[in-house]
Design a protein that fits this description.
The structure is a single chain. By secondary structure, the chain is an alpha/beta fold. It has a single domain, classed as 3-Layer(aba) Sandwich (D-Maltodextrin-Binding Protein, domain 2), CATH 3.40.190. It has twelve helices and twelve strands. The chain has helices spanning 2-19, 35-50, 68-77, 87-91, 109-129, 172-178, 191-197, 207-212, 238-242, 246-279, 289-306, 313-322; strands at 22-28, 55-60, 82-86, 132-137, 141-147, 164-166, 184-186, 202-206, 221-223, 228-230, 232-237, 283-285. The strands form three sheets. It has a five-stranded mixed β-sheet with strand order 2-1-3-11-4, sandwiched between helices. Strands 5, 8, 9, 10 and 12 form a five-stranded mixed β-sheet that branches. A two-stranded parallel ribbon has the order 6-7. Strand 1, helix 2 and strand 2 form a beta-alpha-beta unit. Helix 2 packs antiparallel against helix 10 (246-279) and helix 6 crosses helix 11 (289-306).
């Protein structure tokens, strides 16, 4: 009788253990109630329902796990199982992803889509080699120049200014070098205080990003022209995914891909609406043909600098060919 009781106890413990849900911990800079947060929370709910509670996704919002460099580091060490990041975070795994947001190279989303569709298999393979799954893309918006107290109508307007650059950003430093201006390098969480004190008075950001991060209230000029698309994506640990049951792994990936598609559609629409709102609050700066030519020349010089080490020259040439 005692043996039977012990066996039942062991069996009950085993069943309870098997029923324990697997938690996937994800980092994000996005606020919980932002458009990104709304879409991601729908994914969290879908995964929980479809796996019948077998997989739970826990998202750490609003940079609570640190900037994207910290999040990707935690993903590498297993402290996080995934992250929803911008191109900065993606480029920490595969620097060539930066070719999708080279300043002055893309005029609209259609051009980005053409290049990204062609290069995605290559990026996905690069992530896989390093132990990650690039589940899908989720854009941040179309970056524009914004400033406080002056217009950035031409590259010469950078003189004497204090533009911001993300500390891990690989592309804009080349633009600032070409414009002979020294940027203020910080992480994203430090930008709002820097704008408030005036230590930063210019930056490149999407309209939606500026609103959601509360930077727009500290700025009063916005360019009508696009600097570059601001991309992002969902990255998950390959090891963590492989530890799931085959069924649960498929659910996480399938719903994740759909979530990324929904993010792309939603964010592009929201960014356009945000730009319309900013146009009603800020001075819109539209370069003259002569000024537009100066920007074109500046971006061309920046690309030449990037081709000397930041990005493979052949890859840049490939993208320029795809855009013709």
């Amino acid at each position: 009788m005692t043996r039977l009781v012990n066996a039942l106890v062991v069996l009950s413990a085993s069943v309870a253990l098997a029923a324990e849900p697997v938690t996937l911990k994800l980092g994000s800079l996005a606020p919980r109630e932002s458009p990104w947060g709304q879409v991601l929370r729908a994914w969290v709910k879908a995964v929980k329902e479809k796996t019948q509670g077998g997989v739970v996704i826990e998202v750490y919002w609003n940079a609570s796990q640190g900037d994207e460099a910290a999040q990707m580091s935690k993903l590498k060490t297993g402290q996080l199982d995934g992250a929803v990041v911008t191109g900065v975070g993606l480029s920490l795994v595969d620097p060539t992803v930066n070719v999708l947001q080279v300043p002055g190279l893309y005029a609209d989303w259609a051009q980005l889509d053409r290049v990204r569709t062609a290069l995605s298999p290559r990026f996905e393979a690069n992530f896989d080699k390093q132990g990650y799954v690039l589940v899908g893309w989720g854009d941040v918006g179309l970056d524009r120049w914004m400033s406080k107290g002056f217009a950035l109508a031409a590259p010469s307007d950078f003189k004497g200014r204090r533009p911001w650059v993300w500390r891990e950003e690989a592309l804009l430093p080349a633009v600032y070098q070409a414009a002979t201006v020294v940027p203020v390098a910080t992480g994203v969480p430090e930008v709002l205080p820097e704008l408030s004190t005036g230590n930063v008075n210019a930056l490149s950001i999407s309209a939606l990003g500026a609103e959601q991060l509360q930077w727009a209230s500290r700025l009063d000029h916005v360019s009508s022209t696009i600097v570059a698309p601001n991309i992002g994506g969902l990255v998950l640990s390959k090891a963590k995914l492989d530890a799931l049951s085959k069924e649960h792994r498929a659910i996480v990936l399938e719903t994740g891909k759909l979530t990324c598609q929904a993010l792309t559609t939603r964010i592009r629409t929201e960014d356009e609406k945000a730009f319309e709102r900013l146009k009603g609050k800020m001075t819109v700066v539209t370069p003259t043909p002569e000024q537009a030519a100066q920007w074109k020349a500046l971006y061309a010089e920046a690309r030449a600098r990037l081709a000397k080490g930041t990005l493979p020259a052949a890859l840049l040439q490939e993208v320029e060919t795809l855009l013709k």
